[in-house]
Structure formats: structure tokens, C-alpha cells
Fold these 2 entries.
Entry 1:
Amino acid sequence: MGWRSLVLLIGLGAGPGLPPALQAQGLVPDSQVRAINTARNAAVNTNGGLSVYRPAKCMFETTKLTNPCLTSNDQNGYVFSFLGGPPGWQQMNQQPTVQTQIRISTDGRTVEQLIYNGAPQ
């Protein structure tokens, strides 16, 4: 069992109540983990780096099969839509300053399209 499987099973309280998709796969697909990391890094770079920008916390949740930032996963790739702002914006309950929507390749390695990156809509 890999470390992600162990973390995932501990986090979910491994047992008969696991979702069927998780039971079948055992863990989040590697391509989805790569895709969220690729999307997050692209957004950070596009928006000036970590000293001025932080994506929403859901963009750091790589062990969740159902991530609220993941809006589509199909033959066209992974599409993430998420908010961002200055460091600490979520922890201090501040309004986000940026919304990003980005498509990542099906293997999770390449930014296919920056669909939107601007003021929250």
C-alpha cells in the first residue's frame, strides 16, 4: 500500500462505508493528483507567485476523489475552477480577488487552456 492510499484510508476511516469508486480504485488516480498540482502551480505563477497570491484551500486537497475545485473530468482533461487572493485571505475571511478556471491534460501534466483568470464572477 502506497503512502497516499494509507493517508486516504486513515482520513476516511477505512471500512465498508467507503464509496464504490474508492473501493474499486483504492486511491485518487495519479493523473488527478498531478492535475491539481499542475493547475495550482500554474495559477500561482500566473498571479505573481506565493508572496502575493494563494489559491483556495481546495487546491491543496489532493487526496479527495470529490474535490469542489474539480468541475469536470472527461476525455478533454481536468477542469478546475477556484478562487484566490493574497496570502491568508481565506484564514482571515477576506474576499477573494481572483477567480481561475483552467483545463489540464488527461494525464495531469500539461496546462491545456487557461479558460479564465480575473476578477471573481
Entry 2:
Amino acid sequence: MDKKGDQNLREFTRIPINVKVVVKTEESSFNATKTVDLSMKGVSLVADHLLPVDTKCAVSILLGNGDLGITIDVKGTVRRSVESGMAIEFTEIDLDSYEYLQNLLMHNSRTVHDIVEEEIHSHVGLKRRV
């Protein structure tokens, strides 16, 4: 089986990375306790506060320290919410955040760099190229 087949036909490689994540809805804001993995399409995380499936939210991925760090801001929708955590699918991302996320994934992936790059180039932003 090829490397892409090993990914269970996922559109993007997921990387196990623990970064600070803040999730905001109209009613609440909270920090993730831990991130499980991250991809160009979403984030899986553990949090004390779980949101119901289909909840719209804003996600900020904080890299570095305080004001000196980089923030990746995306909008998303909760796709899975279970006792062990939740998965948020990214639905909107600005160009700067897209580029930061792309670089973060390419530099931290255990997958061959060319595969991650191919996944990114087969999409227009978050959508598969037609």
C-alpha cells in the first residue's frame, strides 16, 4: 500500500503536535487541555469544555510566547464530540494563517515532505481542487 493509502484516504496528513489552542463560540471561550493532532483540515483536541456536534466556532492556534508568537486563526465546525475530546473541521482561514499552518505541518510532519506538499497543492485553500 502506498503512503497515501496508509492514511485511510484522508485528504491531509495529520501530525501529532501539542500546541496551545483557544476555542471561542458566541457563548464561551476556553483553552484546550491538549491537542491530539492537527492537519490542514482540522484539529483534534482534549478540553474540559466540550461543544456539541455542528457547533460553529473560532479556533486560535498559538505558536511561540505571548505577543512574540504567531497566531493561526480559523473558523470551524465541531464534527466529533465525545468524552475523550472533540474534532473541529476548519471551514475558513485567511491567507496568512493558511501559510503559517501549511509551514507548521510541512516542518513537523513525519511523512515525506513531498506527500504533504502534494496534498496542499491538490487543494485550493481548504477545498479539493476540481
